[in-house]
From TrEMBL:
InterPro entries: Fas_rcpt, TNFR/NGFR_Cys_rich_reg. TNFR-Cys repeats lie at residues 21-55, 57-99. It comes from Podarcis muralis (Wall lizard). Disulfide bonds join C34-C47, C37-C55, C58-C73. This is Tumor necrosis factor receptor superfamily member 14-like. The keyword Disulfide bond applies. It holds the Pfam family TNFR_c6. PANTHER family: TUMOR NECROSIS FACTOR RECEPTOR SUPERFAMILY MEMBER 14. The gene is LOC114603243.
Length: 166
């Protein structure tokens, strides 16, 4: 998404090469102030001195979040299963896909509030107690059982006192 935004800005700057008195909802091309396309649309035909900008909707699996003067929409992100991602919010014509981790994983790399990479939650071994189960954004937290106590299983939430056998 970051790269897409940079491409978007660079294209916008190229369209504004001339000093412009156009409003934020317009772009300057060949000295003309022309209306931008709304989010979810792209330019099919740039305006001329005798005709307005013609905009068409983005096609399936593409989007445009901003008012723009681009002749293309951006490709929707795919949530890579190899990175243990799943779709949290589907791509729409005005918003990119949002990914989150599959169950049992937590996000280890965020870019613009969107998860890019997940890691498996750590399993606490016997002899430890879970203090916080893993979440979508945090790994499992656990501590050793205090002296004189134990836990027999993985992912134990409590430590039991040792008993004396006589």
């Amino acid at each position: 998404m970051h790269l897409s935004f940079c491409i978007f800005l660079a294209t916008q700057l190229l369209l504004y090469q001339e000093v412009s008195s156009c409003t934020d909802s317009e772009y300057n091309i060949r000295g003309e102030c022309c209306p931008k396309c709304n989010p979810g649309y792209k330019v099919e035909r740039y305006c001329t001195s005798t005709s307005s900008t013609i905009c068409v909707p983005c096609t399936l699996r593409t989007y445009m979040e901003w008012s723009n003067a681009l002749a293309w929409c951006l490709k929707c992100k795919e949530c890579k299963s190899g990175a243990h991602l799943r779709v949290k919010e589907e791509c729409t014509y005005t918003k990119n896909t949002v990914c989150s981790c599959k169950p049992g994983y937590y996000c280890t790399q965020f870019i613009n509030h969107d998860c890019e990479q997940c890691s498996k939650h750590t399993i606490s071994p016997p002899g430890f107690k879970v203090t916080q189960p893993g979440t979508e954004t945090n790994d499992t937290r656990f501590v050793p059982c205090p002296p004189g106590t134990y836990s027999e299983t993985e992912m134990s939430t409590s430590c039991e006192p040792w008993t004396n056998w006589q």
